[in-house]
## 1
Amino acid sequence: MTEACELSAVDARRLIGAKRLAPSELVESCIARIEAVDPAVNAMVARDFDRARVAARAADDAVARGDALGPLHGLPIGVKDLEETAGLRTTFGSTLFRDNVPAADQHSIAALRAAGAIVLGKTNTPEFGAGANTRNAVYGATGNPFDPTKSAAGSSGGSAVALATGMVPLATGSDTGGSLRNPAAFCGIVGFRPTPGFVPNEKRGLGWYPLPVLGPMARNVADLALMASVMASDDGADPLASTIAGREVRRPGDVFPPAECDLSRLRAAFTADFGFAPTERHIASVFAEKTALFRGAFARTEDATPDCAGTDETFEILRAVGFLSAHLAKVRDRPDAVGPNVRANVDEGLRYTAADVARAMTVQTTLYRRWQAFFTRFDVIITPSITISPRSWRELYPAEIDGTPTRSYFHWLALAYAVTVVGHPALSLPMGTDRHGMPFGVQIVGPRGGDAQVLAVAAALERFAAGDARLARPVPDLGALRVAAPIAGMEGFLGFG
């Protein structure tokens, strides 16, 4: 019998509205799942169970009274520990903020609560989101739910693991170089990087800086679209949340439910590496096998890629600019309290000149225009979500792929940051497992501003894959996690290795 915590968000919300499932029942089921399996994976690191129970009882009463219910009424969520939550510890994965308890929710969390969501706790993240291996010196490492000795990726690794194991039906994430998409792929769930500004972020220090975005994570596309419909708005505190005076630009109905999409009318480009990403041979081979199963669903397919020449250096420079803005003072004043990834980015940023930044922004514009020309020929691009199969979380980052050294600690994320640089929306959709039995995901990239189109294509592919064990979303062995030794006892658990 399905436990309440395993219900999809859409189904749980429908049952709550029909008075067939009490929010308090759902919250207790999620708490029980956290307590049973989290010791093995360390995903839900700061817990707010007492306040969640109070909120759940209030949600029960609202249903009983026949009140108008929000779209997320009674649904428990996990919040990435980079997002500020009122009255709940928010550390950003940094010892500098070990005891930080914000007085107020940031906009994205306030919007979710206003829609009826109930925050169960904070999910683990690397320090300040730096790096795609979820480990830090405050809470330690998060293990992959399919093998806790392996990485869950990141930086939204805790959210991805919480979803994969049924701790919550919805969770928040953020993405600069793939931090929504990479852990989604490693853990077998769905992560969506929307267009910059789609989810307003008033906490971004560089207001017109489009690399970092906030976004939703879920176990299926419909759940993710439901969450996206609540998170999207035109809040003026974020200059990237473009608006037209007097008009509602981003409407919930634009993305939920996802539009019916006829794949047979779409032109799809397939690429394993965007022409430059250091994709593992194993991953490229699995990608070819998986996509061969659904290529025929499209009107026309071609192995093709936009010209991405210059993407590596452009991302390296622009990423470093963001780190200088956010973390220069920390590295300068408290270098002993800052981890190696943050220090590396700040040190790199200090080596660049204004001319370097100007060159990177010029190349970024050139890349953007190449992509626009490419999308006159295609409606969607499909790639692997990530360049490698999960490795040990003790490896701070992959220093080599197939024997070739990587350029930086984030070079292995090139499939994701190719999309980040040009600002297109993209989603990671689970597509079975690779040859090591670990989750495998494909990245669906849409045209400029094509957030709704990406969700529609993902929903159509999800339906196409239904019932095919080769493409179905993998599910971790919960029984094994329940009896597994706590990850906290593993060598190297706390810190950076």
## 2
Amino acid sequence: MTARHPRQIVVMGGGSFSVEADGSLLDAYVLDLSGKPRPRICFVPTASGDSSMYITKFYEAFGGRAEASHLGLFGRPRTDMATVLASQDIIYVGGGNTANMLAVWRVHGVDRMVRAAWEQGVILTGVSAGMICWFEAGVTDSFGPLAALRDGLGILPGSACPHYDGERDRRPTYQRLVRDGFPAGYAADDGAALHFVDTTLKVCITSRPGAAVYRVSAEGGKVAETALPVRLLA
């Protein structure tokens, strides 16, 4: 009997290839998880409206060290999307408008496809929108001002907040939502990531000193923000 690959998700609060010109340690961590010298990695840039600049940056960052491809959903989508996604080692979801991305995914069935790929052992990862989407809920600017998004994919339980130290209003907005009944969850600074195996948090990693990850919950109308142990990548 073939051993089941672990189901893994690595969510990044901010950073990665689009803003780290010298190479992202968080991205390198995800590539190493595949155990392959040149893993197959597919970029899904839906949240950015399939931005050509974002796609170009992806190929510049990964083309030399992986079998890189991307899945576009604007224009005429390809008919073999499920096969393409299932054949990857890593699916990488970019940042942008989370609500729009989820709507487009659901129209084309990509929400079901990525869940099926994860069940088969394909590593899921992403930054910003690519962090929020895997959870039940999250803090997003998809609607203009920061607000609650309550219809995430729910592969991971609870809620998520990226850019916790990178945008002034992220921390108070997330804490207010959680205090008012939003699901408890995780907040990640720019340059910080959380690695889940199945749906259990395995380790928190950072690409820069001082970046942090928090568990945010509430009880009796009071918010508790607990800093989690992190490992600084070399």
## 3
Amino acid sequence: MKRAATVIGSGPNGLSAAIVLAQAGWDVVVREASLSIGGGIRSAELTLPGFVHDVCSAVHPMAFSSPFFSKLQLQTHGLNWVWSPAALAHPLDDGTAITLERRLDETTRQFLQDSTSYKALFKSLVKKWRTLVQEILRPQPYVPKHPFLLAHFGLGAIQPATRIANNHFRDLRARALWAGVAAHSILKLEAPLSSAFGLIMGASAHAVGWPIPRGGTQNIANALSSVLNSLGGRIVTGSRVGSLDELGGQDATLCDVTPRQLLALARGRLPNGFRRSLERYQYGPGVFKVDWALREPIPWKAKECRRAATIHLGGSLEEIARSECDAWEGRPPHRPFVLLCQPSLFDPSRAPAGHHTAWAYCHVPNGWPDCALPDIEAQVERFAPGFRDCVLATATRNTKQMEESNENLIGGDIAGGAPTFRQFFFRPTWRQYRTPLKGVYLCSSSTPPGASVHGMCGYWAAKWVLADSKKSRF
């Protein structure tokens, strides 16, 4: 008789967990509260008909690098990738921009004096990127297969991004570029581990680029769904699970939710100690997001910005650090660090002929209820005068609306929880994805190896389910 499992949530981790179990011959059903699948990997016409916008995530180096996704041959299920000539452009107030190029030499050529330091920081990580990804996308703790490579990464990753900048870079352009990639951490740049994200984002750009899915991020979810369907798995949308008590008769339940939702699903069944650890779980800053339908491309002052799908708007390291600190300390944005994507420059399927789309967000205090649109557009205008004249329509989402669109985004937190030093190593799932409830597992980005679209949280949780089933723990 087949073992049966229910997966709650159809984000990339929920779908990955379902695929692993279906590959092992389990009867798997995914229950999704929304009417569309994907969680953070959805696309929709948010502004005007024919303009396709990514609802949450847009640029996916870790999805392209994912050890699990790479085994699924997602291209045969309709997923195709698009690369811009440069991964990233970071415009500056002098009307120029520094670009993050695929080749290390082409990037460092733009620095006045930090070429050697930049290469020393990234060269081995880029050269051994596939091996590094295998190491960093594993559960914690574990015995590394490549300890020297991981030690090289870890010695830099554990440091605050500002320390790396002060120790390695004197050129203001290099410092600005580094600050922008490190700010993907959604941490203060003075915080431990903020450098980890800078190293990962920078190395991925040089190793594989920062690709976007042709036609929209939804196509990642659609491809994963196609794989699951081919294995006999099922997805039921519009099917909210209000309590774990609804799911009797399952051998395993895997929850692609954050700790706060798990508390609600458990309905008082959790032991006090574990319940308190979930209640203590910390969420990080939220985001304010905006999508634009455009009559023409953004009129960047720096021509280099037309070569990159991703643009970082924040000026200097000091300005970016101040913006990220404000989000953590509860201050509303003034000159926010803005992450912007202009996919239609490289993927014409995103908009009607001759028109364009753009997507942007900034970090704001968790649960901040107000509107950051004027501040975001001011930052775009700062580097692209006349931008507002290009706008046909706008769609915005504050932190509350982000959470309403995806219940995992608590207070607008897109990372599944704050990636602080303590929380990174001491998550509530120290039981390796198990909970104290028999057959119930957590498989979201709140579990190791953490945020980003790579599916590995779901992959490892499902592997743990399979190991437990062989030990007759059900």
